[in-house]
Amino acid sequence: MATTVASEYSNEVKNTPIEHQFNPYSDNGGTILGIAGEDFAVLAGDTRHTTDYSINSRYEPKVFDCGDNILISANGFAADGNALVKRFQNSLKWYHFDHNDKKLSMRSAARNIQHLLYGKRFFPYYVHTIIAGLDEEGKGAVYSFDPVGSYEREQCRAGGAAASLIMPFLDNQVNFKNQYEPDSHGTKRKHVKFLTVEEVVQLVRDAFSSATERHIHVGDGVEILIVTKEGVRKEFFELKRD
């Protein structure tokens, strides 16, 4: 389609095409992170929901307990995230129905989500997905996914608006990268060890408090789901609201 555009010279007339665009995606802000411990796993997300510079909601949960001690979060375009979580919860119910309420393992859950994401690869879910839980040996497990289903098991992973701020902090504090023994003058690396639940929860609070200071799409509150062999429990902490 073309339209007539008059230039500053009244006797000149040009035909300029108008391009019509439609973008089905949006980014609703927020940040999520997962950390695997020795016998537990943590999945956390802030509760702010935004569109550009507007705050739509100060309490929009991003982390969910799906049952079978499996936690999931899909952060990015909120509509796609909600759709993916509901599809996984539905597939988990069908798995229980087909297998006499057999518990779904973390490895199988990760492969299930891979199929859900890859099946939409031509019009992908615009989200960063993380699941957390316990593996067959009772050890903490965290899997992270890109929008088209590529995934890997990791010790820790952050996703969303402030991921670039939080991930270096997690690399240092959880993976002990670039940490050395104080008396070694930078010659002996610090011994890598698992953190306790209390240390991880405090780490999550520090990470989100720091991100809130630097990113306008993160804030209001942080919800932390902790899965152990006893089950799942939730903790909530207030963040800055401006």
TrEMBL record:
SUPFAM superfamilies: N-terminal nucleophile aminohydrolases (Ntn hydrolases). InterPro entries: Ntn_hydrolases_N, Proteasome_bsu_CS, Proteasome_sua/b, Proteasome_suB-type. This is KLTH0E01826p. It comes from the Eukaryota. CDD domains: proteasome_beta_type_1. It comes from Lachancea thermotolerans (strain ATCC 56472 / CBS 6340 / NRRL Y-8284). It is found in: Nucleus. The 26S proteasome consists of a 20S proteasome core and two 19S regulatory subunits. The 20S proteasome core is composed of 28 subunits that are arranged in four stacked rings, resulting in a barrel-shaped structure. The two end rings are each formed by seven alpha subunits, and the two central rings are each formed by seven beta subunits. The catalytic chamber with the active sites is on the inside of the barrel. One of its GO terms (cellular component) is nucleus. Keywords: Cytoplasm, Nucleus, Proteasome. GO terms for biological process: proteasomal ubiquitin-independent protein catabolic process; proteasome-mediated ubiquitin-dependent protein catabolic process. The keyword Cytoplasm applies. Its main location: nucleus.
